[in-house]
Amino acid sequence: MTLSTSSSDHVRPPWRKVWALVLILSIVIVGSWEALVRQAGLGPEYNDNRSLWTDARHRLNRHGDNAIALLGASRLQYAVDVATMSQALDRPVVQLSVEGTSALALLENLAADPRFHGTVIYSVAPAFTLNSALPRIEAGKQQEWVEYYFGQSRSRRMEQSLRLYLQGALAFRSPDAQLTRVIPSILSSGSLPDRDQKTTFANRVLHKDYSKVSAEVDELGMVQFYLENTVPFSKPEFDVILSYLDTLVLLLRQKGVDVYFLRLPSSAEVKLLETAFFPRPVFWDVMEQRLDATFIHADDYPEMAGFMSQDGSHVDSQHIVDFTNVLMDVLRKNKL
Q: What is the pTM for the complete model shown?
């Protein structure tokens, strides 16, 4: 007896058409989301994290001996328009300040780096330079970023470059469009969230939209920060920091690096607190006597006043270009 078998061929799924359809649907979904996010004004924008900072640190290496490195905290990030300064001085300017941190770790890194022979502008924000409570505030953030810079492999750098490129090209990659912001906003109001008050650019310049924060709340926040997180150095502590700075400046000067210590302006209650906590004769004047560097204090240059934001601590982003031009005139007077 003969067994009967089916002569029908197995039907092969049309995988090419399936994958083509998946690709088209993906492009439509992503493209629609991108258009929606852009229309809401949520990007493109950068996240001021260690990847963006490390990219800037590598860029400093590529610029050679003529580069100007900006070191400090948020005051310098809000105060200097990098493109304006670079164009006016015809020199590459790299913003390496980190919001809410001390720049000592980076100063040490540049002093030890045989490739760096440019110019250092170090912004002395008292709460992040002369404060024994600093470890509690910043938790070694800039030291961590310096170590991350050293630990990068070539493949990690390539991956980072691609990530930053996409972040600058695609709005849905913006920090403002993260699902942790978008989903709660849609659930509560049925719409996408407003753009955050802070904007980070590719060159790590920071802008803030002060219309989104009341002046009273903004200044109060800075005042509370100082009152809750300020313990000025004792004389022995200050002597230790001075010796450390003296060593780093000496190493930089031996390489031909010009070092500028810059005291940016503050105003209102913040300035009163800084004057009370960190008297100029006790701290700034002693630094100027001890260190082989150029010192620029905003109080000595009245033209640097009048650009402050409502928080009393940062230059208003609306005036960043004008302030940068004034600052450059002051730097030129001091032989930059």
A: 0.89
